[in-house]
UniProtKB/TrEMBL annotation:
A Gene Ontology cellular-component term: membrane
Superkingdom field: Eukaryota
Organism: Culex pipiens pipiens
Signal peptide coordinates: 1-17
Major site of localization recorded for this protein: membrane
InterPro entries named among the record's database cross-references: Yos1
Pfam families assigned: Yos1
GO biological process, one term: protein transport
Subcellular location: Membrane
Alphabetic keyword roster: Membrane, Protein transport, Signal, Transmembrane, Transmembrane helix, Transport
Record's keyword annotation contains Signal: yes
Family: Belongs to the YOS1 family.
Name of this protein: Immediate early response 3-interacting protein 1
Function of the molecule: Regulator of endoplasmic reticulum secretion that acts as a key determinant of brain size. Required for secretion of extracellular matrix proteins. Required for correct brain development by depositing sufficient extracellular matrix proteins for tissue integrity and the proliferation of neural progenitors. Acts as a regulator of the unfolded protein response (UPR).
Length: 83
């Protein structure tokens, strides 16, 4: 059954997956490494979609690292207590 808890749990798992991606080991194999997104853009030029996605991954990894620890603990305790 699709509930609010399953939606929260799925988003938590996706955030965990984004946070554990390693640029040199995994993303560089597919051309999504740090060197591929380090292209300098001129003033007024929008960055490519690839660069925007990599910046999003880096920002999620930076901002969500500590809160994810606590959210994972809450999810684990919730699963242990309520099944």
């Amino acid at each position: 059954m699709f509930t609010l808890w399953s939606l929260i749990e799925a988003s938590l798992l996706c955030l965990n997956a984004i946070c554990i991606l390693h640029e040199e080991r995994f993303l560089a194999k597919f051309g999504w490494g740090a060197s591929s997104a380090a292209q300098v853009h001129g003033f007024g030029e929008s960055p490519s979609v690839k660069a925007q996605v990599l910046n999003l991954v880096r920002s999620i990894r930076t901002v969500a690292k500590i809160p994810l620890i606590f959210l994972n603990l809450v999810a684990i305790i919730f699963k242990l207590l309520l099944g």
